[in-house]
Each structure stands twice: as structure tokens, then as C-alpha cells.
Amino acid sequence: MASISLHSNHTLPSLLHAQTPKPTFPQNLSLLPRSSQSQFHGLKLSNSSHLAIPSSASVRSSIVAKVTEGTLPPAFTLKDQNGRPVSLSKFKGKPVVVYFYPADETPGCTKQACAFRDSYEKFKKAGAEVIGISGMAFAQKYKLPFTLLSDEGNKVRKDWGVPSDLFGALPGRQTYVLDKNGVCRLVYNNQFQPEKHIDETLKFLKSV
């Protein structure tokens, strides 16, 4: 039988280690070109050692609404679901709930509209009117008893400063309660729990 003779100053692991070649890479190897960049949800990626993340100040400034509690919202005149012009001033003298929703026929917006419909008698008992602002061709399908207004070009949304969500990719879902003098008394924002808008506005109306 053949035998292996090892010198005293070499062990089997050390021999194996010595025979394992180490990979070498050119010192000037570049995995990405210097000019390569990508965009993902507001983050700017490059081959630098850090990420350009939006500062907290810039994020805060992008979600501050122009209409806040204690302010008088800008007036508007928009067409309702029947094509008739409706002005905000028409409702002066009674509380008004104005809710902005992202789009018609989406699950969340349908749920919110139907929740307002189902609680409409409670709003009437509180002496308040309800106005939804976004699109048209909605009220008849779901038998909504309140006014829906079409804000073409999102002009009123911009005038009121309704904030967007997901870095501006999704129009915001925000509700305002105006008192009988037209002054804003409540601002409520909740994108992903549309039915909470009804609960919170009714709770507020009952408390005043």
C-alpha cells in the first residue's frame, strides 16, 4: 500500500490551502457605469456610497394642506352629477361635509360613498350637507342621495391643497367639515380606511 509522507512543518490543511488559487480581479473593474442611475419611489440610486433620500422637511412640506382648521376655504363652482353648476356658497348657513376621494369605481371610493349614503340620515339629523368631489356618473348607479361634483383638472383639489399619498402617485382622500359660516372646523385624512371618514365626521358634528 502506498503511503504519504508529510514533513513536520506542513500539515494537510495547510497544503490544501496553499493549492487553492485566490481569485483576482482587475483593480479598475466597475460593476456599474458612473452615469448609471435609477429612480424608485423617490429614491435616487447611483454608484455613490449613499442614497439621496428626501429630507423630512421636504416630505412635510409636500403634505401640508392650504385649508386648515380655522381658515376659510377657497370658493368654487363645479358641475354636479346632473350637469348643473353648484357653488359652495349655496350651502352657507349650515354645516357642510366636503370630502375629496381619489377616483370613481374603485373599491375604496365605492365603499366610502356607500357609507356616506347609508349614514346620510344621520348627517341630515345633524343639519349637515354632504358633498363629494372627484368625478361624475357615480350617484345614480349607487343611489347616492348627496351631491357629487366633478373637479376637472383637479383645480379645486389644488386650491384647497389636498395632499397626495405614496410620493404623489395617489390622489389624497381627505374630508373637511365647514361650519355654518363656511369656516373649516375639521380636517380628516385617511387613505386606506375610507369608512373612518364617516365615523369621524359624525362624531365631530355631534360634539358641536
From TrEMBL:
Single GO MF descriptor: thioredoxin peroxidase activity
Tell me the keywords, alphabetical order: Antioxidant, Chloroplast, Disulfide bond, Oxidoreductase, Peroxidase, Plastid, Redox-active center, Thylakoid, Transit peptide
One Pfam family cited in the UniProt record for this chain: AhpC-TSA
Reactions catalysed: a hydroperoxide + [thioredoxin]-dithiol = an alcohol + [thioredoxin]-disulfide + H2O
Subcellular localization, as worded in the UniProt entry = Plastid, Chloroplast thylakoid lumen
Q: Which GO terms describe its cellular component?
A: chloroplast thylakoid lumen; chloroplast thylakoid membrane
Record flagged with keyword Phosphoprotein = no
Group of enzyme by EC: oxidoreductase
**Enzyme Commission code(s) on record:** 1.11.1.24
Give the main localization category: plastid
Q: Which residues form the Thioredoxin domain?
A: 67-208
Question: Its GO biological process terms?
Answer: cell redox homeostasis; cellular response to oxidative stress
Oxidoreductase as a keyword of this entry, yes or no, is: yes
Q: Which family does it belong to?
A: Belongs to the peroxiredoxin family. BCP/PrxQ subfamily.
Q: Any idea what this protein is called?
A: Peroxiredoxin Q, chloroplastic
Instruction: State the organism named in the record.
Output: Sesamum radiatum (Black benniseed)
Q: What is the lineage of its organism?
A: Eukaryota, Viridiplantae, Streptophyta, Embryophyta, Tracheophyta
